[in-house]
Write a structure and sequence with these properties.
The chain has about 200 residues and is mainly alpha-helical. About 75% of the residues lie in helices and about 5% in strands. Helix 1 runs parallel beside helix 5, helix 2 runs parallel beside helix 6 and helix 3 packs antiparallel against helix 4.
Length: about 200
């Protein structure tokens, strides 16, 4: 094994073991030493499965499909203009006017498509940020009802397939919860609370 890769792996391993030791001590003190209770939430699962996120994804996909349909229609119009241009004599003034019309159509089409995509991304960011804040409030409500004092971010248990050692090291180093008892996982309760709130909103 090359020396630099061996060193990177060694540092990652030492760091992970240090985090395990520190995390275990901290959790032990939090639960056993002070009587505090900790819960965990799989944030990715919440965002993947809650009704509002699914509605956001469907709405964004619909808007993208609509934007693509308009772009396709604009391309069809551009092709028709190009056909008209081919029928004209390059020496005629009408030829130059048609060329200018095509150039304007190309620029306007590109600008419109970029504008629509920017608006879609902005809308997705705003709505996803709003959902994240709702999720935090739901975590607080569920935790208070269950007597939990702290909620930790729980990643999916399986690591994503890595292309190289650096990616794997980032995954391992970024883990916040290495293991939690099933009764500490309130993910499904948080999803249910968000879904109930969403159902109440859509009924109005």
């Amino acid at each position: 094994m090359p020396r630099n890769i061996h060193l990177a792996w060694l540092l990652t391993t030492v760091g992970a073991l240090t985090l395990i030791g520190w995390g275990g001590t901290a959790v032990s003190q939090a639960i056993g030493g002070s009587g505090r209770s900790i819960a965990v939430v799989d944030v990715q699962k919440v965002f993947r499965n809650c009704k509002e996120k699914q509605h956001i994804a469907a709405d964004i996909e619909s808007r993208r499909t609509n934007a693509q349909a308009k772009a396709s229609a604009a391309q069809d119009e551009l092709r028709e203009l190009q056909k008209d241009l081919e029928l004209l004599d390059p020496k005629e003034e009408a030829f130059q006017h048609k060329q200018e019309q095509i150039a304007r159509a190309i620029i306007e089409g590109q600008t419109e498509l970029k504008f629509r995509e920017t608006q879609i991304v902005r809308e997705m960011m705003l709505r996803s940020g709003s959902l994240y804040r709702k999720m935090r409030r739901a975590c607080g409500d569920v935790s208070r009802a269950n007597g939990h004092d702290v909620v930790l971010y729980k990643e999916p248990e399986e690591l994503v397939r890595s292309q190289n050692l650096e990616q794997l090291s980032r995954q391992i180093g970024g883990r916040k919860v290495l293991w939690a008892a099933g009764e500490l996982d309130i993910t499904d309760q948080v999803i249910q609370k968000l879904d109930n709130a969403w159902d109440n909103t859509t009924r109005k």
